[in-house]
Amino acid sequence: MLTSITDGILCCLTGKAASLVMPVESSEPADTFEFVEVKPGRVLRVRHIIPERQSSVVTEEDQVKEPEQEKGSGSNNSSSVHCKRKITVYRNGQLVIENLGDVLHSQILQCQDGDLEPCSTVEVELADYKEVPTSPEPKPTPPLPTVGDQKPAAPPRRRHRKPKRTLMIDSEREISSCKGTHSDVALFFVHGVGGSLDIWGSQLDFFSRLGYEVIAPDLAGHGASTAPHITAAYTFFALAEDMRAIFKKYARKRNILVGHSYGVSFCTFLAHEYPDQVHKVVMINGGGPTALEPSLCSIFQLPSCVLHCLSPCLAWSFLKAGFAHQGAKEKQLLKQGNAFNVNPFVLRAMMSGQYWPEGDEVYHAELTVPILLVHGMYDKFVPMDEDQRMAEILLFAFLKVIEEGSHMVMMECPDTVNTLLHEFFLWEPDMSKKDTVKTDPDKTVTVNGVVVQTPKPNKPMDK
Q1: Residue 79: its pLDDT value, please?
Q2: Scanning 26, 265, 269, 461, which has the fewest C-beta atoms within 10 Å of its C-beta?
Q3: Tens of pLDDT along 193-239?
Q4: Coil, helix or strand for 23?
């Protein structure tokens, strides 16, 4: 603590950063790490594991289940899903989403589901994220007194809302099971602010042993990636272009993106930019479908030297808020994951650079990729209702809640998260029991401030 304060005072006096971001020590084999120059002078550390497939991974059980499938060829049976929805944005700030295509049901049962059901129509307010009551029906006007044969005046007609713009999505998407024996599958893991690729240690080891190719980069200024001493290097768009370069370098035919916290935004960006290459997405404690805008009253707006003095307090606060328990195990996980082990200048620039006006509800509503939302019950950074709102906006989304987890749930409950993710990777929709959505206009409910018309399937839904 005293050393941190001393370095912070020197930083204030000299006007220079108290320390530079240096490569972190790792016990992992050096041959699994690569350094990729995404731009001249901008180098990211990437952990890239290509496992030995075919003979060592394929079991006799797999061979019995897939007699016609060549080992490692990636050929597999897929289900074609009709993705159709109408997105209408009105001038008063309302967003109405009508789902007109297929309804998918999750078969993942490891964790409890969020309290959501597939719905046909969702109506929300764009401008305000708070619960806003929908426009009430006009009250009937009492009849005017009649004079002789004069008829009472007709009640005023409700003003028709004028749409500002309308988007129609109508496409077919192939969704298939992604196994570790398939050579055309790659898993990407993207961390958030203050972390590094080390927070994914349990997931990278687990899935590489199952035969998956895994890719996990360090964001600029994090882990062992270079840390430019310029604020513009840490804006959302600069970091998103870094992730684009990594994705284009390592992408296979079917790619699965796994993001945590701020890393979810980059996964969303890639899924929107490359809908044909991104096969599935996992969002872990990513928050709601709202545009990013930095907070002007945040503690991270303080000068870098002050943040350096406060770094022990910030680490302690992160331990309290990021983990459900604060024992010796959690402290060791925090140290191993290098969470908040970044330069104060980088931390400040990352927080102030979270500006992404395009990433609003409409942007998320346009996604057609299947998405698994994982939420830690004790997360103090991301409230439950934000992930619930995300699940309501997305076309194909399954919300799973891990009761014993918090914000760093993949480090706290690695076995539960690994099993949940693996089931999602292997999941494919059973289109033999396809539901046709029919809306009952007389049956409406309100969930988290969203007006939902409940569907009436022709066949009973699978439970």
Answers
A1: 84
A2: 461
A3: 989 999 999 999 999 999 999 999 999 999 999 999 999 999 999 99
A4: coil
Handedness of CA 394, 395, 401, 402 (dihedral sign): negative
DSSP string covering 393-435: HSSSEEEEEETT--TTHHHHSHHHHHHHHHHHHH----GGGPP
| Residues with catalytic roles | 261, 379, 407
Contact 226, 23 (CB under 8 A): no
Tokens 């992404």 found at = 356
Q: Please give the helix or strand (H or E) that residue 39 lies within, else none.
A: strand 33-39
Q: How far apart are CA 336 and CA 334, in angstroms?
A: 6
In this structure, the number of other CB atoms found within 10 A of the CB of residue 194 comes to 25
Of 241, 230, 188, nearest in space to 212 by CA = 188
Beta-carbon count within 10 A of 5 CB: 14
Query: What DSSP state is assigned to residue 90?
Result: E
Q: Torsion-angle region of residue 93: left (phi > 0), alpha (psi -120 to 50) or beta? A: left
Rounded to whole angstroms, the Cα distance separating 375 from 384 reads 7
Residue listed under structure tokens 């005072």? 9
Task: Give the residue from 171, 206, 167, 200 showing the smallest Cα distance to 339.
Answer: 200
CA separation for the pair 245, 242 (Å, rounded): 5
CB 180 within 8 A of CB 211: yes
